[in-house]
Write a structure and sequence with these properties.
Layout (H helix, E strand, L loop, with lengths): L2 H110 L51
Length: 163
């Protein structure tokens, strides 16, 4: 073999080495670009996930605030119901006292006028005066007929006969 042949072999080897180097360089550039693209996509995905998490947190806080408002409303309603129950009990008690006073006055009137008929004498409390009913169904107001606003017809006959 002569020297030109060695020169051509050397030139071919250099060309092959350059081609291999260029291919390796292109492949590494592609891998680097792919990694950068993947990192960019990962950052965008992470940013979207963070935004979704913020929105979910705000929704959660809003729902919690709404639940707290509902609990507060329920507590206020319970307090109002308790207050109404106490007022109803007081009104039932007042009605029972008024009914007892009315019975006492009837008994006193019967004692003052022995000639009055027996229907005006003290009698046990009628069923309407019972205080063991639920609220809103207590004894009628004093002087009213079963809470209708009409005055009851109390015996208007004179307590004694004669001039």
């Amino acid at each position: 073999m002569d020297s030109t042949m060695w020169i051509w072999i050397a030139i071919a080897a250099v060309v092959i080495i350059v081609i291999i180097a260029v291919l390796i360089s292109l492949a590494s550039r592609r891998r680097r670009e792919a990694k950068e693209l993947q990192a960019k996509e990962d950052r965008e995905r992470a940013a979207k996930l963070r935004e979704d998490a913020r929105v979910a947190e705000l929704d959660s806080r809003e729902k919690n605030a709404a639940a707290m408002r509902k609990a507060s409303d329920a507590e206020q309603a319970a307090v109002a119901a308790e207050r109404l129950s106490m007022e109803a009990e007081q009104q039932r008690s007042d009605a029972a006292v008024a009914a007892a006073a009315a019975r006492e006055k009837l008994a006193e009137a019967a004692d003052v006028d022995p000639g009055a008929d027996a229907s005006n004498r003290a009698q046990p409390a009628p069923a309407e005066d019972r205080t063991d009913r639920p609220s809103g169904e207590g004894a009628p107001e004093e002087g009213n007929d079963a809470g209708t606003g009409r005055h009851s017809a109390v015996d208007s006959r004179p307590l004694h006969d004669g001039p």
